Amino acid sequence: MIDLRRRNDRLRTAASMPAIVLRIAFIVFVAVVALLLVPITGWQVVVVVAAVLGVIVPQSFGGWISIAGVVVGMLMNDPSMWRAMAAVLAVHVIHVVASLLLVIPWRSRVVLAALWPSLRRLLLIQLIAQPLTLLVMLAFLSETVTVASAAIIGAGALATFVILFLLRTKRAEKRS
Predict the structure, then answer these.
(1) How far is CA 46 from CA 38, 70, 110, 135, in A?
(2) How many CA atoms lie within 13 A of 47 on its CB side?
(3) Whether the predicted pLDDT of 1 surpasses 60
(4) Which of 19, 54, 99, 134 could bridge across to 63 with cysteines, CB 3.0–4.6 Å?
(5) What is the DSSP string of 57-68?
């Protein structure tokens, strides 16, 4: 007798990976960020332990605690343009992946195509954040930093935000 229940017990999806791979990659990424950006060993350990906690118990918000550790560690070092730009990217990646870890079960498989919208948003935000970070660091590291130059940079950032907001609103109106 043929068992009909066993015939259709597979679900075919596009390319995917086990959720544990994303979790391990998160810990490795945070460890590399801590080694590159945080100068004090104790803070490096805090950042990595917080990331491990965030992987084991995502509701503990350990990923965001590791972000705070990276920021505090950055404050303990001399300002550097490349470090600031790397930190903006790293903190954003940690935030995005930690948010994903909240909703992806441990034993599941993650379809890689499902990660595309998050990656696209990350790239779009970095397209705005990196030039702004560059401008702020150039102004900060220059010898002639004035309140006027900071105001100009702030006004440019505000204008960029307003333009993007208006474009998004216009696009949303067209859809409805």
Answers:
(1) 10, 9, 28, 31
(2) 29
(3) no
(4) 54
(5) -GGG-HHHHHHH
Distance CA 97, CA 110 (A): 12
Distance CA 111, CA 19 (A): 9
β-partners of residue 17 are: 110
Backbone angles phi, psi at 107, to 5 degrees: -95, 10
* Percent with pLDDT over 70 in the chain: 90
Q: What is the DSSP letter of 8?
A: T
d(CA 49, CA 53): 6
Strand pairing partners for 32? none
pLDDT band at 143 (very low <50, low <70, confident <90, very high): confident
Which tokens sit at 139? Answer: 């102004």
Strands (E), 35-124: 109-111
pLDDT by residue (tens digit) across 29-49? 999 999 999 999 999 999 999
Global pTM exceeds 0.90: no
**Assign residue 61 a region: left if phi > 0, alpha if psi is -120 to 50, beta otherwise?**
left
Q: Following CA atoms 95, 101, 103, 105 in sequence, which dihedral angle do they give, to the nearest 10 degrees?
A: 180
